[in-house]
Amino acid sequence: EGQLMESGGGSVQPGGSLRLSCAASGFTFDDYPLTWVRQAPGKWLEAVSSISWNGDSVHYLEAVKGRFTISRDNAKNTLYLQMDNLKPEDTAVYYCANLPSFWGQGTQVTVSS
Fold it and tell me: Contact at 8 Å (CB) between 62 and 75?
């Protein structure tokens, strides 16, 4: 079964930036679209962004459009999420996922002054 491992989370001030990475193994990475999902405390899971197998098609949650950029490097089996102009409401655990099959363990992003 495939595995996904996120990294790059942390604590930043509002307006700051973070770059999340997701290293994949155990499956044919470039066969699948991938998704970043987040869960804020006390809230439902929400899909933040998704990308097609070759990166040609991307989608974003309205709340992050213009601030987040999803990308992938199929040669490195790695998915990325560049997050700029972070807001306190972006605070959540971020997961990369090969929906609906498997997810990573998540990485915490905290945006606070």
Answer: no
Dihedral sign computed on CA atoms, order 83, 86, 87, 91: positive
Is pLDDT of 61 > 90?
yes
Contact call for residues 23 and 112 (beta carbons, < 8 A): no
Q: Both tokens of residue 14? A: 């509002």
List, as one string, the DSSP characters of the chain: --EEEEE--EEE-TT--EEEEEEEESS-GGGS-EEEEEE-TTS-EEEEEEE-TTSS-EEE-GGGTTTEEEEEETTTTEEEEEE-S--GGG-EEEEEEETTTEE---EEEEE--
Q: What is the pLDDT of residue 1?
A: 81
